[in-house]
Amino acid sequence: MTEAYHAIVVGGGHNGLVAAAYLARAGARVVVCEARHKTGGAADTMEPWPDLPGFKVTTLSYVMSLMPGTIIRDLRLERHGYRVHPVGPYVVPLPGGRILIEYDDPKRNYEAFAAISKHDAEALERWEAWVGRLAAVLGPLLMTTPPRLGSRRPRDLLEQLRLAWRMRGLDVRGVGEVTRLFTMSIADLLDRFFVSEEVKAAMCINGLIGTWAGPREPGTAYVMAHHSIGDVGDGTLGSWGVPEGGMGAVAAALEASARSFGAEIRTGAPVERILVRGGRAQGVVLAGGEELRAPIVVSACHPQITFLRQLDRSELPEDFVRDIERWSSRSGVVKINLALSRLPRLAELPDWTDFSGGFEIAPSIEQLETSFEEARHGRPASRPFSDGVIPTVLDPSLAPEGAHVMSLFTQWVPHTWAEEQPREELEAYADRVIDAYEEVAPGFRESILARQVIGPYEMEHEWGLIGGNIFHGELSADQLFHMRPAPGYADYRTPIEGLYQCSSATHAGGGVTGIPAYNCVREILRDRKRRKGRR
Prior knowledge:
Elements: E1 7-10, H1 14-25, E2 30-33, E3 45-46, E4 57-58, H2 69-74, E5 84-86, E6 90-93, E7 99-102, H3 106-114, H4 118-138, H5 154-166, H6 172-183, H7 186-191, H8 197-203, H9 220-228, E8 241-243, H10 247-260, E9 264-266, E10 271-277, E11 280-286, E12 291-293, E13 296-299, H11 303-308, H12 318-325, E14 333-340, E15 358-361, H13 365-376, E16 385-389, E17 404-411, H14 423-440, E18 448-454, H15 456-463, E19 499-501, H16 515-534
Parallel strand pairs: 1-2, 1-13, 2-9, 13-19
Antiparallel strand pairs: 3-4, 5-8, 6-7, 10-11, 11-12, 14-17, 14-18, 15-16, 16-17
């Protein structure tokens, strides 16, 4: 047995690193145990092609959005190399050959939408105001610990009252709008504002990213809001941005921050078992038998890894075990990374060169729904959906001079491919994604120097993303807020005293934000203060 720590963090993904940094900042002696050869988890930059040196891809996650300024400032991330370039306009090819360009600038965006539908251009302001009103109320909830709804314990009742007070900005109409947000499909929600099918297809993209659901699935309206909320209550957050050095540079900044506060980082150190005695966490056992001791263990791993593999189920309540067994982490995501000899050339806009934003393949609501239904019934999509980003437009350091890398976040393949993935079908699916870009940018296929195709199987077995789900669990209404990941345990605590959870499967998870870890450490420090107060 090695010397004791104050806290052990299991998993060195971005949430694990944020937790370690905050704990060390508070004076704790912390060690992070990461199974892989490096930290970061899905926030990773790599050079996948030995024959093409200098091409660096953002392996899985690919853009930043919701990381609060509080975390960036507290952890001094900019001092450790954290730099994010805001993305530019989005290029959305439409059926019939037209191209919609989505701008951040309201005037230019109005003109672009008016070329398709004057009604929808007029509706943009109303849409953005509607999302903004909801964000003003719901955004700060991301930084809030969910109360134990239904509990009659005095402390829990007080937290429920505090939640009700935070919701005082919602009138009767506002409550109705929130209800719609959580229960409607993104397609039905957009129908309330827009008339053009082309516009609705372009606008629904944020409701589908990483989601095992088509645009007509109830609950996808909330997924849109999760990606669009913009303000979590500590200042206006940036829109989507490309990190300099790729997503791996975000992980590197977080690791450097944690080390600067005194945290110890161990890679190649998979945790085999969490030690428990008398209902209390005691430490961990690493693969190979080494024991590390600490009164606090923080898991940044998927809950089914933590509670069903690293703990004996007999140490947990039966209803909690059932909830974790039923935790849904389906995904139909395939990540494709490309090395390009040049930028794409659009057939309809041959002089367009600004690919600093997204380059989307989302032809229509009906096609998107068909693509999902194909995967739901066990077939990879015949016409996949793709959210494309070319980060080298903003960060040329990721490729040799004049060349580029492109990140394609695509959907859908059968969720069962996380268990058994037919490689030939996966490659054929990737070919169809490339074909879709070739249709709107002739010569695109010829510009590809190399490609990397990562399916749900690799995501689960290499990165620990069960089911290949980037959120560690679906963002469905039954898996949000006080239900994430189980009723009674959405406050980052667990049935084991001293064992906490801060993965993306906890409240505010989804995206590289660090918010679950921030909230989790706040609860750990509150518990420590309460214990000291009882002495």
